[in-house]
Amino acid sequence: MQRIQDTFINVLDKFVPLADRVVLEIGCGTGYYSEQIAHRCRRLIGIDPDSQKLEIANCLVLPNAQFLPRSIQSTDFADGRFDAAIFTLSLHHVPVADMRRALDEAMRVTTPGGRIVVLEPTTKGSFFDAELQFGACDGDERPAKAAAQKALEDHPKLQELVGLRGETVFKLDNLEDFMSSMAPRDPGRRFKNIDLIPAFLRTHKYKLRATRSVTIYKIRA
């Protein structure tokens, strides 16, 4: 599966200039967004609790980036160390009970006047349809996505500056590519329509579109 389009970095360039800034990326994973962010800022620290993904990220040639095994619920960074903190498709992966704590920590380590950026998946697009219908990729994450949105809306110190929509487009070579890349699951024959995957892929011309929300916040005094 190949990512052939992703609008996130263009949104970031327009609304959050990163030149000469120190940035924290929360949930950096294997470093897909890290590489783009690092080319735009002075210094990038990427954190993720998944050590296997960090091994891949650390193979990137990014002299101004460092990747650390950390959870955003609790870091050892100094207050106000970063000019911006960016959640890259990660807030909904935080346990619901810890989401407020994660946001508090992101704000603590961000300088006053800095920005909190939250990139999150929505429940729109053919990529989400595949997750829902066939148990593909991360499956049905609607409760977690809704909890993340509520945590953002309810936080008294986060002021939304701009909310936008982005999109990521994935290209699949064939059915085998879908099966290996998105690993559709059929536990207990829950997904009765898993045999419909070939027709689903043909309908979408082997391209899956994932709609994203991109929300930029400032920290209230």
Describe the structure.
With 221 residues, the chain is an alpha/beta fold. The chain has eight helices and eight strands. An eight-stranded mixed β-sheet has the order 1-7-8-6-5-2-3-4, with helices on both faces. Strand 2 (22-26), helix 2 (32-38) and strand 3 (43-48) form a beta-alpha-beta unit. It is globular, with a radius of gyration of 18 Å. The N and C termini lie far apart (44 Å). The mean pLDDT is 94.
Strand content: 25-35%
Total number of strands: 8
Q: Kindly provide the radius of gyration, computed on alpha-carbon positions and rounded to a whole number of angstroms.
A: 18 Å
Structural class: alpha/beta
- How many helical elements? 8
Helix content estimate: 25-40%
Along the chain, the helix and strand elements come as: EHEHEHEEHEHHEHHE
Which descriptors apply to this entry?
alpha/beta; 8 helices; 31% helix; 30% strand; globular
Summary?
With 221 residues, the chain is an alpha/beta fold. It has eight helices and eight strands, in the order βαβαβαββαβααβααβ.
